[in-house]
UniProtKB/TrEMBL annotation:
Gene3D superfamilies: Dehydroquinase, class II. It holds the Pfam family DHquinase_II. It catalyses: 3-dehydroquinate = 3-dehydroshikimate + H2O. It comes from Nocardioides mangrovicus. Catalyzes a trans-dehydration via an enolate intermediate. Coiled coil: none annotated. The record marks R17 as: Transition state stabilizer. Belongs to the type-II 3-dehydroquinase family. This is 3-dehydroquinate dehydratase.
Length: 142
């Protein structure tokens, strides 16, 4: 089974970005682990990251057309992008929302809303990079 692990803005700077919140693992390391974890689950995982919202919308539209399951960390777009809401609504295979931190527990009010959750099979938050492993597992466990 092919699985897309899609990451939104600022996640390319993992390891250097606010490590006290997001940890010290780099994005390249995260991507490598996702591919390994997926292989253990019999999945063919492709990991992508973009700082450009249109890229993410295009990837989600293709995933909808191809029936590809998605693990999505949309970063800050999670909290306000109605275009992302609409793209997630069109997905034809399961979607798992993942966050390294737990946005619901963070002080900024804007993090307490997600446009993705209404379309997600599950939300994994606050488990750091291991959350991606659990998210991949949830796709296979169905
Ligand atoms: C995040 C949480 C978001 O609120 C934030 O904007 C991010 C990362 C996380 O993985 O914890 O960029 O999605």
């Amino acid at each position: 089974m092919k699985v897309l692990v899609l990451n939104g803005p600022n996640l390319g700077r993992l390891g250097r970005r606010q490590p006290e919140i997001y940890g010290t693992t780099t994005f390249a390391e995260l991507a490598e682990r996702c591919v390994q974890w997926g292989a253990e689950l019999g999945q063919e995982v492709e990991v992508r990251q973009t700082n450009h919202e249109g890229d993410l919308l295009d990837w989600l539209n293709s995933a909808a057309d191809e029936g590809t399951p998605v693990v999505l960390n949309a970063g800050a777009w999670t909290h306000y992008s109605w275009a992302l809401y609409d793209a997630c609504a069109q997905l034809t295979a399961p979607l798992v929302e993942v966050h390294l931190s737990d946005p619901a527990q963070r002080p900024e009010e804007f993090r307490h809303t997600s446009v993705i959750t209404p379309h997600a099979l599950a939300v994994v938050a606050g488990e750091g990079i291991d959350g991606y492993r659990r998210a991949l597992g949830l796709l296979t466990a169905r």
